Amino acid sequence: MKWITILIMVIGLVLIVYSGSMYIQSGEVAQTIPLEIAGDTEGTVELTPDMSPVRVILNTEFISRTKSEAVRFYSYTIDIKDDQNNEVLSQSGALTLRRESKDIPANELSRTQRRIHSIDAFSIPRKSTYHWETGLLNRQARVSSAHLEIRRNVQTELPMSLWLGLGLLIGGIFLGFFITKRGEE
User: Fold this and answer.
1) What is the pLDDT of residues 56-91, one digit of tens each?
2) Is the C or the N end of the chain the one with fewer CB within 10 Å?
3) Structure pTM?
4) At what angle do helices 2-24 and 160-184 cross, to 10 degrees?
5) Helix (H) or strand (E) holding 152
6) How much of the chain is helix, strand and coil, in % rounded to 5?
7) From CA 160, how far away is CA 60, in angstroms rounded?
8) Cis, peptide link before residue 49, omega less than 30° from 0
9) Residue 161 — φ and ψ, nearest 5°?
10) Best CA proximity match to 8, nearest among 131, 172, 129
11) What whole-number distance in Å separates Cα of residue 58 and Cα of residue 117?
């Protein structure tokens, strides 16, 4: 019975990871914009209503410069405005990590790590040239590569398989506790 519980939890976890990945990578790439690895970058992009909804994704590659337990690798800002200077998207964030010293990989200072930040999705009301500005600030990492990805016709509703996976994972955990409690009696 224990292996069935483990199988249910593994299936749930696989569904969550797969569905989340498909959600973020839905649609098709409309444009890839390379960014400065430190500092500000700006430019324009032409967007039309037939691309709606559009998702902005920040992709980074970085190398850690510390083996600290609490790390703030880098921070970012992304702003997009339409041709009339109306704000369409504005977001800032940071890649931070808190961990125990035993969880820090031995080769962390030499290996390249990758992160994908799904920034936001929005609709395009009319054809326009949109102005974007980004800022990357290295903190305890050195960003070696960064680019924005504009994806068109993306999915905005979370897929049902994600909720199914979450239900299976939680159900498997509860089933595991039930089996453990019952086995102790």
Assistant:
1) 999 999 988 777 777 888 999 999 999 899 999 999
2) C
3) 0.75
4) 160
5) strand 141-152
6) 30, 45, 25
7) 29
8) no
9) -65, -30
10) 172
11) 5
